[in-house]
Specification:
The chain is of the alpha+beta class and 276 residues long. Helices cover 32% and strands 26% of the residues. It is built from 10 helices and 13 strands. The protein has a 5-stranded antiparallel sheet with strand order 3-4-9-5-6, with no helix packed on it. Strands 10-11-12-13 form a 4-stranded antiparallel sheet. Helix 9 packs across helix 10. The relative contact order is 0.13.
């Protein structure tokens, strides 16, 4: 990849790249297969070090992993929404991020759990917060000679959990019109929110880390008023466009609806989460 620069593209699952090549959107002269690099295919979790999720781990393996379902249910749900089961056997969270689509399902879920992307190249390695990874539709911070190795995700705090939901025109296997991810930490003594992260997909040129929406929850009980404030702040953070899948006005409405739903769901999970 260093030798061929922009003429080379990495192949992980290929569920985006092959379609783009067939459509003539991308015309690489070299395709570099990364699937057999062992470090890219590992999932490891410990309470001390958190989660290390290899960039090439197929989505189906994420869904089948007990630690993923227990500690990161929202991210697991997002990975399980990528296409059909056949697609999930090849598609990866790493590829979903590196494709740079504003509508990618796993990116808001990754942002919600404060994931960092470990990137490596000839000049060394760096950690990039996922909210800073995408720079424009189809573009990321990756240089032509760099690859994504893994995601590093902290262990969830006690009494915390995450959730992800999307709206699509059809019942399944469609691109998100809006996607929202949230992670919530509660104080069990008085049920107040002590930490929150909210992220949006498909309503801007890149996925959006809705900081003000999350801040509207911190220090408050998650009643209808505080959740409504967060939903309004998330709507204000969005910048959708009209396209064949929905109008900008409709998307803004759905941002508010989904924000309310995922905050409530993440909070419900946080209340029943075992002390960690």
């Amino acid at each position: 990849m260093a030798a061929h620069g922009d003429k080379a593209r990495a192949l992980c699952g290929g569920t985006d790249l092959i379609i783009q090549m067939r459509a003539g959107v991308r015309r690489p002269e070299y395709v570099v297969d990364l699937k057999n690099i062992a470090a890219l295919r590992q999932i490891s979790f410990s309470m001390q070090h958190g989660l290390r999720l290899g960039a090439a781990v197929p989505a189906i393996e994420i869904h089948e992993n007990a630690d993923m379902r227990r500690y990161y249910p929202g991210l697991t749900e997002a990975a399980h929404l990528i296409g059909s089961l056949q697609i999930q056997s090849r598609a990866s969270v790493g590829g979903n991020l590196c494709n740079g689509s504003p509508a990618a399902d796993t990116i808001p879920a990754l942002i919600a759990v404060a994931a960092k992307a470990r990137v490596i190249g000839p000049q060394g390695e760096r950690l990039v917060p996922v909210e800073e990874f995408c720079t424009a539709p189809g573009r990321t911070v990756l240089q032509p000679d760099e690859i994504l190795i893994e995601f590093q995700i902290p262990t969830p705090a006690p009494h915390s959990s995450d959730a992800y939901q999307r709206f699509i025109p059809r019942n399944e296997m469609d691109i998100a019109v809006v996607g929202v991810g949230a992670a919530i930490t509660l104080d069990p003594a008085d049920d107040r929110c002590v930490a929150a992260r909210i992220a949006l997909g498909a309503v801007g040129p890149t996925p959006i880390f809705a900081r003000e929406a999350a801040a509207a929850l911190v220090g408050k009980r998650l009643d209808e008023a505080s959740i409504d404030n967060a939903a309004r702040a998330a709507t204000a953070a969005s910048s959708p466009i009209d396209d064949m899948r929905g109008t900008a006005e409709f998307r803004r409405h759905v941002v508010g609806v989904l924000t309310r739903r995922v905050v409530k769901l993440a909070a419900e999970r946080a209340r029943v989460a075992q002390s960690r």
